[in-house]
Design brief:
The radius of gyration is 29 Å and the shape is globular. The longest helix is centred in the N-terminal third of the chain and has 26 residues. Helix 8 packs across helix 9. The protein has three domains: about 200 residues, Aldehyde Dehydrogenase, Chain A, domain 1 (3-Layer(aba) Sandwich); about 180 residues, Aldehyde Dehydrogenase, Chain A, domain 2 (3-Layer(aba) Sandwich), CATH 3.40.309; about 60 residues, no CATH class. It is α/β, with parallel strands linked by helices. It has 17 helices and 20 strands. The strands form five sheets. A seven-stranded mixed beta sheet has the order 11-13-14-9-8-16-17, sandwiched between helices. Strands 5-4-3-6-7-19 form a six-stranded mixed beta sheet, sandwiched between helices.
């Protein structure tokens, strides 16, 4: 059924594209490539892989501990129950649409609260679900105001999935803590672009420009910081000047304008340099207009170097080594994603050193649309994942059923003097570090079986007691 939603979305593609047009997104290509195509791919992935991911897993004799002889187990995936999806304004189709689809595929009912201003596009998206056969009783759309989310949580839900700012995430978590309701938090980002020596500077600059312009910079994994050594930083700066000088102005969402203006003005007051000299705080606050902005001479301690801004702005941070770059990334409170540009093998060896949710090598943003991949952050960028197999599993809970076959149940027998030495010998036989020690464990088990007492785990074989026992056994 979820797979059929893709066809229903394709049938409404033009309407969805038109309804997604905002002051931030005026290019229909961005809606098609950034929302419709990834959403439909994710729906088809769920249809193709969902039943296999959520199937019951059997655990029989293979790999079972010997002392659990006769026990066979099954792990079932059960729905969490009622899932509340709190949507976002910057990607109102892709993000809540896939989250709702995964929750439904796992057997849950869903309440979806759209972001303010996204009511019409959400309604059209939900019609596609209903057209594909999803009953309205399983998928309910809530009013868009904040109070409806508060009421829904108060009334009782079994999982909350939020895409939003870190500040919003903290508010939701405080309310969820009252009822110990589990949550998945996909929150803000202040993502870095790390440019290594030997990187293709033109490619890096093209990707940064794409990331700054796409969706007017209102993307959680847009390039907010460029981290590079002196030479690479200068080269990237020059390449960006060539590419961004004639870029059209963007409109910043009303909810983000004040913070963006305050952070940029504060950075410039602290010594950061506006590379183009075009930032106009008054114009931004009054009309929401600003051109893509590059700030140079930004220090790692500046607020803007770790700020979750939804605008086409990036800062250049110069480092002396890759180790310093790694430290800047891993110490930032927002660790959603990182892009690395450099020779492939070297870049991948650096990638595994970053404590972030996603690393893109020689690209940014676009690879995260692969429906097979999980997506989630670290630190104040949230926790838990959506999308991919891991995201589908997150919408369910494991339920384990173990059954004992036969009458073998040694734990039900009366205690015997030989039990402790036999079990200690078995422990040594199974898990000791050397072959000699394991053989010693086997000897202890045999001794316990013969005498009813055995040799204690802390007794040495050359003690008088051990020699006496050995003589008795030989006789």
């Amino acid at each position: 059924m979820i797979g059929r939603v893709a066809a229903a979305i394709a049938a409404r593609a033009e309407e969805l594209t038109e309804l997604s047009c905002t002051a931030q997104r005026v290019d229909p290509v961005e809606t098609i490539t950034g929302e419709l195509l990834p959403t439909c791919s994710a729906l088809r992935f769920i249809a193709r892989r969902g039943s296999k991911v959520l199937r019951t897993r059997a655990y029989g004799a293979l790999g079972r501990p010997a002392w659990l002889w006769g026990v066979r187990s099954h792990v079932h995936r059960k729905p969490r129950g009622k899932v509340l999806v709190l949507g976002t304004w910057n990607y109102p189709i892709f993000l809540p649409g896939v989250q709702a689809a995964q929750a439904l595929a796992a057997g849950n009912t869903v309440q979806l609260k759209p972001a303010v201003g996204c009511e019409q596009v959400t309604s059209c998206l939900m019609d596609a679900f209903y057209k594909a056969g999803v009953p309205e009783s399983a998928l309910q759309v809530l009013p868009s105001e904040t109070e409806s989310a508060i009421r829904a949580i108060d009334s009782g839900v079994d999982l909350i999935v939020l895409t939003g700012s870190s500040e919003t995430g903290q508010k939701v978590l405080r309310q969820a803590a009252e009822t110990v309701t589990p949550t998945i938090m996909e929150l803000s980002g202040c993502d870095a672009v790390v440019v290594l020596p030997g990187a293709d500077i033109a490619r890096a600059a093209d990707c940064i420009v794409f990331g700054l312009k796409f969706n007017a910079g209102a993307t959680c994994i847009a390039p907010r910081r460029i981290i590079a050594e002196q030479r690479e930083a200068d080269l990237v700066k020059t390449a960006l000047r060539e590419r961004l000088d004639q870029t059209a102005w963007a409109t910043i969402h009303a909810a983000a304008r004040e913070q963006v203006a305050r952070r940029i003005s504060g950075a410039i007051s602290s010594g950061a340099v506006d590379v183009f000299g075009r930032f106009d705080e008054t114009l931004l606050l009054q009309c929401g207009k600003m051109a893509p902005l590059i700030l140079d001479s930004v220090n790692a301690s500046d607020e803007i170097a770790a700020a979750d801004l939804f605008a086409p702005v990036t800062s250049i941070l110069r480092v002396s080594s890759i180790d310093e770059a790694r430290g800047l990334v891993n110490q930032c409170p927002y660790r959603l994603a990182v892009s690395i540009f450099g020779p492939g093998n070297i870049a991948e060896s650096v990638a595994v050193q970053f404590d972030v949710g996603t690393v893109c090598v020689n690209d940014l943003i676009v690879p995260t649309a692969d429906p097979r991949l999980p997506f989630g952050g670290r630190g104040e960028s949230g926790f838990g994942v959506t999308r991919g197999e891991d995201g589908l599993l997150a919408m369910s809970v494991p339920a384990t059923i173990s059954r004992r076959h036969g009458k073998f149940a040694p734990h039900l027998q009366p205690r015997q003097p030989k039990d402790a030495p036999t079990l200690l010998g078995a422990l040594q036989l199974l898990h000791a570090g050397t072959l000699t020690e394991r053989c010693g464990g086997l000897k202890n088990m045999i001794a316990a079986a013969k005498t009813g007492r055995g040799v204690g785990a802390n007794q040495q074989q050359n003690t008088p007691q051990a020699k006496s026992l050995e003589k008795e056994n030989n006789s």
